Amino acid sequence: MKRIISVLLILVLLTVAVAAQEELYDEEFDKVIEEDIYEDIGDVELKGEAGMTPDSALYFIEVLVENIFVGDNPETALEYKEEKILELKEMINSGNSEAAEKALERVEKYNKIIKREVSPELDQKVRGSSKATKIILEQIESELEGNEWDDVKEAVNENLKEEDKIALAAKISNKIAGLCRALSNLDPLEYSKVCKTDDNAPRWKKDLDRELTAEQEEEAKEFFGIMSQCFENPNECRCEDISIKPFAEKCSEFAPLVAKCDSGDEEACEMMEKIEDPIKLLPDYLQDVMANLEGRYEDSKHDLHTPKECVEVGATSKEECSKVMFKINAPEPCVKALEAGKINIDNERDSREACEQIMFKQDAPQECIDAGLKSFRTCEKYMFKLDSPQECLDAGLTGSGRDDWKKCSAIRFKLDAPEECIDAGITGEGRDDWKKCDAIRFKLDSPQECLDAGLTGEGRDDWKKCNKITFMLDAPEECHQFADDRDPWKKCKPVQFKLEAPQECLDAGLDGTGRRDWDECKKIQKKMEGESKQDCAPDELHICDDDGKNCKCTSDSNEGCGAIDCQQGYSCQYGQCFPDEGGCGDCESKCPGASSTECVDDECKCFYDDKGGEDWKKGCDAILCPENTYCEYGECKSYPVSECQDGCEQECGDQNTDCVDGQCVCLGYGPNGPPTDGGDNSGSSDDETEESSEGGTDSGTEGEGEPETTPEEPEVVESTPEPTPEPEPTPEPESKPEESSGNEITGGAVTGFLETLRGLFN
Q: 180, 454, 531, 533: least CB-packed within 10 angstroms?
């Protein structure tokens, strides 16, 4: 059996490769020509001389003579073709491109005859000629130059490819002949399918078929004798002598039932009726013999056993009973065809084939119809090749074997089943192996809630019940009403959409029933969100509304920036976006002259070596420290938060003020009283204090350093602190301030200093 399968596989491949159609050669050639088709051909060259060349006025006479003598003879065509190759060479040497094209046209004509009709006997000769021809054509192609030779060069290139195809056809024809002979001996049924010839077959194959058909005639005579004896006396049927082994096996099963039925055993008769007609197991030439025998013995067979269905309706004749049984057993489309006169039941074989054709057109997969197949048997093999994994094909399964699908299923099981099923000893060969594996998979894959509910995976609806449990757990409560539907999640999707989708998507008419509603919703959201942070350039800010929508990229410095506004990979420092560099960035560039730096809480700390005296001042300069920090002993430190920054207007109104330790001190209105009394206290205002501070003198001194007249005991008003840490109480001002040396810094001077720093940074 293995030998038959091997022969079949090789023969199918070769038959495909050698088919005469030009399209098949063009599509399959590169796939088939994997082996060297000239491997056993030595050094060769074309011998002989060119005949009358195409530039001769009498060349047409030579063409007429050749057409008469060549016919479809591949050997004669090969001789003329070699002559034309030599003529081509002469025309190119003489520089006649038009005559060269004529010679190439004749070469192409003879190539078609050779490729179609090449016989096994010409294998070596044809391949040797093709190899020698290629040598000449390659030389010609390399020497052609100039636009006038473009058409010739293109034709030469095509002929180079054609020579390989001719050599391949010759080599395969030899193998086909040998394999068909082997197949006729091993399995005549397969021979009749694969090696059967038609009117378009090459002559050598027709001759081979006639030779083998003579042998088949002998086999048909022997088969007729065996089956005649079986029909006459089933007890003496020599089934084991039948050469078609599948039919012989069915015969051994069928003959004993026929014998019992003839003896009046109705149960055996009914069993016999249930067995599929084994005639399909025979090649065509033996099916004809079988049909002839059935026709001879059908009447006596009908007399011995008339089916009860025919007896019940009074169909006693063979023709009437056949019609009754056909209507009972045939599919409805075939019954309709019978009533329409499209099926004739006088010939059982013809009626069976007609019905099969009707059902094939109705039920066959589209792939088989597109492939031009006509029967379920060939379709089954074709679908096996399409559907089965490569591992099944590699195992030699073709779909023609009785158990091929079963064997392939076992292979697929080993590929697809979880390791736990394999470890449990399940092989996939048993009828319930997948069911057993499903129980194991259920325990592995199902949620704990399903196992807690007592489900094991062995029940028919366990997965369905488990899906309901998980649906009730995962779906929103509004969807629980769909739990018993076939596809509850499909019903739930619109509900989920209305619950989860933003209002703008609902306003756009989306309801979740469309396959792409969520995609459309995301587009709407993205459009409303505006530009993303990734769209911004490094020097642009990312500004959004308070609700995070209508975002835009802007380079307007008036927009300011915050850490969240800067593009990804950048952070906001001193009102601008800078690239992130480990939190602090390049601390060395921010601390020039520092002996070392450190990043603490995403801020650079600068450290300078102690140099004594005034040298520490060289460690940093105030202008180098970030905003709201100052330089002290070579290190930038933050200024304390002072409530004096707004000029103490909030705390003291229009009174005179001073700033002491970051706290506002209200100094009253002075001798002239508040502005509403018509007094002029401008000389003691905060503005004047600030101006004097900027001028380098204390607010309480004149140009000579003399203090102003001290007002009456001022009322000290403490500012109302924020609900954060309570400030220390502000000390009461002395009734009479000490004389100023002119070098002391008052609160107003500090405020002015801060404003100066702020102006430098901005």
A: 454
Give whole-number Cα distances, 731 to 685, 716, 721, 734, in Å: 21, 8, 16, 9
Structure tokens belonging to residue 559:
């927009």
Name every residue whose Cβ is closer than 8 Å to that of residue 473 and which is 6 or more positions away in sequence. 447, 449
Nearest CA among 611, 579, 583 for reference residue 597: 583
Report the mean per-residue pLDDT for the chain.
72
What whole-number distance in Å separates Cα of residue 688 and Cα of residue 656? 10
d(C-alpha 393, C-alpha 527), whole Å:
53
Q: Return the higher-pLDDT residue of 420 and 6.
A: 420
- Of all residues in the chain, the percent with pLDDT exceeding 70 is 65
Q: What's the rounded Cα separation, in Å, for the pair 381 and 377? A: 7
Q: Which of 127, 126, 131 is nearest to 160 (CA)?
A: 131
Question: What single-letter DSSP state applies at residue 479?
Answer: G
Query: Residue 479 — pLDDT band, cuts 50, 70, 90?
Result: very high
Q: What is the pLDDT of residue 31?
A: 43
Encoded tokens for 403: 């158990």
**Residue 492 banded pLDDT, cuts 50, 70, 90:** very high
The answer, yes or no, to whether residue 252 has pLDDT greater than 50, is yes
Q: How sure is the predictor about 663, in pLDDT bands with cuts at 50, 70 and 90?
A: confident
Structure tokens at 225: 């004798």
CA dihedral 493, 498, 502, 506 (to 10 degrees): 110
Q: Which single residue is written with the structure tokens 């000449």?
A: 136
Burial of 89-112, coded b for 16+ CB within 10 Å and e otherwise, reads bbbbeeebbebbbbbbebbebbbe
Helix ranges, 118-202 (H): 123-143, 150-186, 188-194
* Alpha-helical segments (H) within 388-487: 390-394, 404-416, 419-423, 433-445, 448-452, 462-474
Per DSSP, the residues of 314-325 read T--SHHHHHHHH
Query: What DSSP string runs through 623-651?
Result: GGSPTTEEEETTEEEEPPP-GGGGTTHHH
- The answer to whether residues 148 and 154 touch, using CB atoms and an 8 Å cutoff, is no
At which residue do the structure tokens 């009860």 appear?
308
The whole model's pTM is what?
0.31
Tokens coding 520: 């459309």
Query: Are the C-beta atoms of residues 585 and 578 closer than 8 Å to each other?
Result: yes
